[in-house]
Amino acid sequence: RFSQVFSPPLLPLLRFSIHGPLERLPVVAREAPIERTPPEKIKYVEASFPIEESRFGELHEMPESVLSGYVAKIVEAEGPIHVDEVCRRLSQLWGYKRTGARISNAVQLAAERAIRVGKVRLCQPDPPFFLESCSSAEAPVVRDRAEASSSVRAVDMLPPTELWQAILRAVEASIAISPGECAGDVARMLGFKSTSAQLRAYIEREAHVLVHKGSLLLIDGSLRLP
């Protein structure tokens, strides 16, 4: 028997012909599998800086030009960020424990001014309104919110554009993945230990947005890259 004449490692290298001698096949070196290194987690960092005007004036009494500069500074540090979170952050930096209607209105007007003068821009034209710096040309990074404040971790405060990047990363790592499994992976990227029904629904909805945009394919119930 051939298995008794040739040792097992040599068997794949030989081809037998009834019309001629044995022919040795070329040895093809196999490349070692590429091991993917998990991307380094980037922590969500909340803006923190002193505000001189807070010592002698109320936030809602400040000129729009002054407040719009602080809005832009917060967005540069935390963007993409919901306009309501910008309001909370500026209120905290001013020394307030709560954000009233007058403060919310003042920050909203300041954000609109910052958009008009080209300091910040809307991530998308329709609600919910998330802001990003006009100086940011690249896609948003996926940030770990495990140690962030509770308001940052609220589902409606998660920027869709950041979710899109996390979803694409999860699909790329798995080649093919169901929307439900993708939601769990994305939640962990964002620093959530568990995936609530609300968070899962939100992530799955944004995954279908990517399918509609053509950035992902949905084949037999699995998300795939085009």
Give the SSE layout:
Elements (H helix, E strand, L loop, with lengths): L1 H4 L8 E2 L7 E2 L17 E2 L20 H15 L2 E2 H12 L6 H16 L3 E3 L7 E4 L9 E2 L5 H4 L6 H15 L1 E2 L1 H11 L7 H17 L3 E3 L2 E3 L2
Parallel strand pairs: 3-7
Antiparallel strand pairs: 1-2, 4-6, 5-6, 8-10, 9-10
Strand order of the largest sheet: 4-6-5
SS elements, strand count: 10
- pLDDT < 50 stretches: 1-19, 30-36
Order of helices and strands: HEEEHEHHEEEHHEHHEE
How many separate helices? 8
Summed over residues and divided by their number, the pLDDT gives a mean of: 86
Distance between the termini: 49 Å
Beta-strand fraction estimate: 5-15%
Classification by helices and strands: alpha+beta
Biggest pleated-sheet summary = 3 strands, antiparallel
Shape: elongated
Cα-based radius of gyration, to the nearest Å? 27 Å
Classify the helix fraction into a percent range: 40-55%
